[in-house]
Write a structure and sequence with these properties.
The protein is an alpha+beta fold. The protein has two domains: 7-58, Thrombin, subunit H, CATH 2.40.10; 62-156, Up-down Bundle (Methane Monooxygenase Hydroxylase, Chain G, domain 1). Helix content is 48%, strand content 20%. The chain has a five-stranded antiparallel beta sheet with strand order 4-3-2-1-5. The protein is globular, with a radius of gyration of 17 Å. The N and C termini lie far apart (38 Å).
């Protein structure tokens, strides 16, 4: 269970801070985490009872975040040539909530975008993955979004292919 003030990550919305734990009278008494999202400046109410199923987890450590910023998140997975296969695989990586897999999606799609414009669906995945990745790295390191972007930019400007 999380406490007020904890920094947590929602796998599809990004990182934020638990601002309160509220009780709502909907279908009986249920406890909810009030999660203030860092980049969207909105509050999500997440049922405490199913927060694990949703994938709510603590933000990664500062050490892990610094490794990600240095490009230590595992090899880049091969990307299928078919856009719908790429879409499915990248969505699976984003939904996993694993910071390394989300970083792989960001770097691969940024590299692909450098070579040719992304399709609409891939642009949306990239935006979602960046929001999730950047918000977690920002909370873990205390950096601004611009600093996180500038630090990661050399990773997708390398001559390797994804």
């Amino acid at each position: 269970m999380f406490s007020v003030g904890d920094s947590v990550l929602h796998p599809l919305h990004g990182a934020g801070t638990v601002t309160s734990i509220v009780i709502r009278q909907k279908e009986g008494k249920k406890q909810y985490y009030a999660l203030h999202l860092l980049l969207d400046d909105i509050v999500l109410y997440i049922p405490v009872s199913c927060s694990r199923q949703i994938g709510l987890r603590p933000v990664c450590s500062r050490q892990k975040a610094e490794e990600i910023l240095k490009g230590k998140f595992g090899g880049l997975p091969p990307q299928p040539s078919s856009w719908n296969c790429r879409y499915r695989e990248n969505m699976e990586r984003v939904r996993s909530g694993d910071i390394c897999r989300v970083a792989q999606v960001v770097v691969c799609l940024r590299m692909r975008n450098r070579r040719r414009a992304l399709a609409g669906n891939e642009k949306r995945i990239l935006e979602c993955a960046e929001k999730i990745l950047y918000s977690e790295l920002m909370l873990a390191t205390g950096m601004s979004r611009e600093d996180v972007y500038r630090t990661m930019e050399p990773l997708w400007n390398q001559p390797r292919r994804c």
